[in-house]
Amino acid sequence: MAESTQMSDIALIQRVEAAALWAWPPQETARDEGWLLRAAGGHTRRANSVQALVFASGADVERAIGRVESWYAKRGLPSCFQLTDRHAPAALDRVLEQRGYARLTPVAVLLCDPAGIEPPKGPRIEIDTRPTPQVMNAVCDPHWDAAARRARAELFARIRRPLAFAVLFEGVQPVAGGLCVLDRELAGIFTLRTAVHARGKGHGRAVARRLAAWARGTGARQLYLQVEEGNTASLALAASLGAQPAYGYWYRELDAQAANA
Questions:
Q1: How far is CA 208 from CA 106, 181, 182, 223, in A?
Q2: d(CA 199, CA 83)
């Protein structure tokens, strides 16, 4: 990921991650030495991982990791940490690697000004504030089983911030969709998806631009997107909106064999 003047700004990272917590809320949380433990029954790594932005000075990191592992084990979940460019303590990534945690899913967080994004023209895009069946059909992978789809609907229902789903139609069929969640002046775009047969037509970009227009109209002054670093199409979409890299995050998840060693 390209360097950014904002990369070392811990206040920025904490602000965006706080907004993202409200936008993708877990079922339960707990605190341990400043870390925030999150659980949501699986199905999404972000809501089932430790937000490791703050750690108590002088605390024993190995003991804290042990308590984290017990907490997740009681819930039938793998122990997982979300690490940013400014995780705490600074040696945590190395310590987790030594304990057998695999590094997974590096993500770029990008920021842009929604005022500079023109709304789309042409495709029919409807805005909804509830995860209706047509919304779920637009934003969910059709190969998900019923449990995964139900878990995603339950996650959407837990959001307690202003939100909008955008659904793009070809005829009467929803073929693309996405979600935007507002937290004061900051808005995030999530779960952008286009049906396989409808890709390559700019539908994802149109949905993102429509959500950016909604965010601007509800008071957002900054827009953030979280894109897996290997997803070249989504990175290109973010670049088309004028989004610039702000920071990165990745996960460290305990390998089952390491956990049983």
A1: 22, 12, 14, 11
A2: 32
CA-nearest of 144, 13, 22 to 82 is 13
- Residues with Cβ within 8 Å of residue 238, at least 6 apart in sequence: 110, 112, 225, 227
Kindly state the tokens that stand for 27: 């079922």
Geometric angle at alpha carbon 22, from 2 and 103, rounded to 5°: 45
Q: How much of the chain is in helix, strand and coil states, percent to nearest 5?
A: 35, 30, 35
Contact 103, 251 (CB under 8 A): yes
Determine the Cα–Cα distance for residues 254 and 235; give it in Å rounded to an integer. Answer: 28
Q: What is the number of other CB atoms lying within 10 angstroms of the CB of residue 62?
A: 9
> What is the spatial distance between Cα 259 and Cα 69, in angstroms, rounded to a whole number?
9
Over the stretch 93-119, which tens digit does the pLDDT of each residue have? Answer: 999 999 999 999 999 999 999 999 999
From residue 162, give the alpha-carbon distance in Å to each of 138, 216, 221: 20, 13, 15
Separation between Cα atoms, residue 136 and residue 153, nearest integer Å: 8
Q: 108: which 2 tokens?
A: 């770029």
Residue 106 near residue 229 (C-beta atoms within 8 A): yes
| Confidence (pTM) | 0.91
